[in-house]
């Protein structure tokens, strides 16, 4: 019994030595010391010149010390070898660029992607080693307890291998992008027309707007008929029953504090009525002179579907397709096309 216990102890000791030895081999294999490049290192140089302290960056040590006895040089940190995915500058430092000359990403995310694959590979290799060790322990020992321990080792190793490979396979099947640890946040360009809700100005000499319309001219049926309220739920060419205007109808060009629906194309409002089923308030219609600012450029025109609608939780939920909160000044795709969220109202249209 003592001999068998000694054999069992010797086997376990040998197993631990094999595992540790294998780990050291892997560490040595992936060690940056295998790929050390002799490069001239740069750093910060401090020296005194004409009784004034000077400090310069990106100095070679030799060039810095050549400035005299007052010069001190502090080198930058350099990795022993380029980290995978981070690139390497000619001076040996880490390249902070996101892509290399070939267009391949060398961001930190690429380094993490490489490390994930390496770690999974190491886990698989260690699992195989533990399976072999468990098999040896099971086959060479006559003790029931040792055989059970060997079987337990094999079972745990197989379970660990399945977890590692299964997690990778599952994530890769669902969406390969889940395994891409790209930490680079892409820039977003937001275009906001700051004059969208600024009234236009007319030439005092001619009293005309940029489009040639005369200030204080009648705003009547010659421009477009007033859009009537629908008398039925399925009526077309009219304002749906759930839609109202914020201000009274305009009567002259240039009039303030009015909301016009003359010639308004109500197709988008009809879509909103069917999809949202909520009450909608028009804050901006076809009264083009109240939009466009100095440039006079606006899509608020007779015959256009462009319209401004007062923001409500129900309308926002319908346009956004969920509960995501919109950000003022950004455009979003909606069931009625592109829409600009301007805080207190939605600008439906280009």
TrEMBL record:
Domain of life: Bacteria
Transmembrane residue ranges: 17-34, 115-136, 157-174
Annotated keywords: Membrane, Transmembrane, Transmembrane helix
UniProt protein name: Uncharacterized protein
């Amino acid at each position: 019994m003592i001999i068998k216990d000694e054999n069992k102890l010797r086997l376990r000791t040998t197993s631990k030595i094999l595992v540790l030895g294998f780990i050291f081999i892997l560490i040595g294999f992936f060690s940056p010391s295998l790929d050390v490049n002799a490069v001239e290192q740069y750093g910060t140089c401090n020296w005194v010149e004409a009784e004034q302290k000077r400090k310069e960056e990106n100095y070679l040590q030799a060039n810095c010390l050549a400035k005299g006895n007052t010069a001190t040089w502090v080198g930058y940190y350099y990795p022993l070898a380029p980290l995978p995915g981070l690139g390497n500058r000619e001076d040996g430092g880490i390249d902070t660029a996101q892509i290399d000359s070939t267009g391949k990403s060398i961001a930190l995310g690429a380094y993490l992607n490489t490390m994930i694959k390496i770690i999974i590979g190491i886990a698989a290799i260690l699992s195989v080693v533990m399976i072999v060790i468990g098999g040896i322990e099971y086959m060479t020992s006559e003790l029931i307890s040792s055989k059970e321990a060997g079987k337990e080792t094999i079972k745990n190793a197989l379970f660990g291998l399945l977890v590692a490979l299964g997690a990778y396979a599952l994530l890769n099947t669902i969406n390969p992008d889940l395994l891409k640890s790209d930490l680079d946040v892409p820039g977003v360009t937001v275009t906001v027309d700051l004059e969208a809700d600024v009234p236009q100005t007319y030439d005092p000499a001619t009293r005309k707007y940029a489009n040639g319309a005369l200030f204080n001219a009648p705003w009547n049926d010659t421009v477009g008929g007033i859009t009537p309220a629908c008398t039925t739920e399925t009526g077309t060419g009219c304002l749906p029953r759930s839609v109202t205007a914020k201000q009274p109808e305009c009567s002259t060009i240039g009039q303030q504090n009015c909301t016009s629906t003359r010639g308004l194309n109500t197709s988008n409002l009809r879509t909103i009525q069917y999809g949202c089923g909520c009450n909608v308030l028009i804050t901006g219609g076809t009264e083009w002179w109240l939009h466009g600012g100095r440039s006079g450029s606006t899509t608020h025109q007779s015959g256009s579907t462009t319209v401004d609608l007062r923001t409500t939780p129900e309308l926002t939920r319908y346009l956004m397709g969920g509960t995501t909160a919109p950000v003022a000044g950004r455009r979003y795709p909606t069931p009625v096309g592109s829409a600009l969220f301007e805080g207190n109202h939605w600008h439906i249209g280009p």
